[in-house]
Amino acid sequence: MKVLITGINGFVGSHLAELFLQEQAEVHGTIRPRSEVANISKILDRIYLHEVDIRDPHSCYEVMKKVKPDLIFHLAALSFVPVSWTNTNEVMMVNVMGTLNILQAVKEFVPTSRILVAGSSEEYGKVLETEVPISESNALRPLSPYGVSKVAADKLALQFFHAYGLHVVVTRAFNHTGPRRPDKFVVSSFCKQVVDKESMEGQQLIEVGNLDAIRDFTDVRDMVVAYKLALDLCEPGECYNISSGGGWSIHEVLSTIFLMSHKKNNFQMVIDKNRLRPSDVPRLIGDSTKFRKCTGWHPLIPFSKTIIDILDYWRKRK
């Protein structure tokens, strides 16, 4: 079994690569030229890397011709939502045109491959109170350029299924985190700030953004199992939510991190305006009934365990 993971050196891609290595698969991955490979440093000798700029159609064609993968997980994207307001053109190029280039390359060179296109809960955007938990049939009302880009990628993927018969499965993952998550993302950011200040005396300030937002968190190690199951068991041409089904306010997340810190009761929150978004989704809780019925999947790792592991991840890097 040949597996190709776009963005293999990313947070999710690195965990997915490890999962398939356990399955004895031949794992290939794309990375952007001169990109960081720290996340996959321990498995570099067991995987095949290909420098690919997904914004370039020829680059995508070449990797498909060379690898001829059985399974493709298209994870490569610019996924940090705030950047989509400051660098909208690049987000659209990578997330939309990059997805189009990958799909066209699959159509031309490996049309029998199965491909997962990783969408996002940010596609739902402005969700009404009566629409929670959110199912796949919910209206898509994205509130960020990133959300718009993922809607476009989602629709392109389904169009290639209907027009060309590609075996495409679209997943809409709700928030997922865990070890290796960059510190610009909320849970990892809080954990790193707390770890950086655990040895300091006196009251320490933790920079925060919107603490009222409610999010549905799944551990990345459960998420990659779900991705694998999606291509094993789900119907092509369909969208599937992947979520825990529970909601945590960002304030609750931060309070839990404080409780798990080695240093107790010495942290104070301070609002950093740079961490506030022009528009934010107040509540994102997913209904993954459709996916669970199809695969039998359910998350195994408690969110408290995820937080402990992220704290330990940053402690090891001090």
What topology does this entry show?
Elements: E1 2-6, H1 11-22, E2 26-31, E3 48-51, H2 57-67, E4 71-74, H3 83-86, H4 88-109, E5 114-120, H5 145-164, E6 167-173, E7 176-177, H6 186-197, E8 204-208, E9 214-215, E10 218-219, H7 220-233, E11 239-242, E12 248-249, H8 250-260, E13 267-271, E14 283-284, H9 289-295, H10 303-315
Parallel strand pairs: 1-2, 1-4, 2-3, 4-5, 5-6, 6-11, 7-10, 8-13, 9-14
Antiparallel strand pairs: 9-12
Helix pairs in contact: 1-7, 2-4, 4-5, 6-8, 6-10
Please describe the structure with a list of short key phrases separated by commas or semicolons:
Rossmann fold, single chain, 318 residues, globular, 14 strands, three-stranded mixed sheet
**Count of helices?**
10
**Low-pLDDT residue intervals, each spanning 5 or more residues:** none
Secondary-structure element series: EHEEHEHHEHEEHEEEHEEHEEHH
What is the CATH T-level topology of the largest domain?
Rossmann fold
For the largest beta-sheet, the strand count, sense and barrel status come to:
7 strands, parallel
**Largest beta sheet: what is the strand line-up?**
3-2-1-4-5-6-11
- What's the Cα radius of gyration? 19 Å
Based on DSSP secondary structure assignment, what is the total number of beta strands?
A: 14
Strand fraction? 15-25%
Helix percentage: 25-40%
Distance between the termini: 39 Å
Instruction: Name the CATH superfamily assignment of the largest domain.
Output: NAD(P)-binding Rossmann-like Domain
The domain count comes to 2
Mean pLDDT: 94
CATH class of the largest domain: Alpha Beta
CATH architecture of the largest domain: 3-Layer(aba) Sandwich
Which assembly state applies to the chains in this document?
single chain
The coarse overall form would be globular
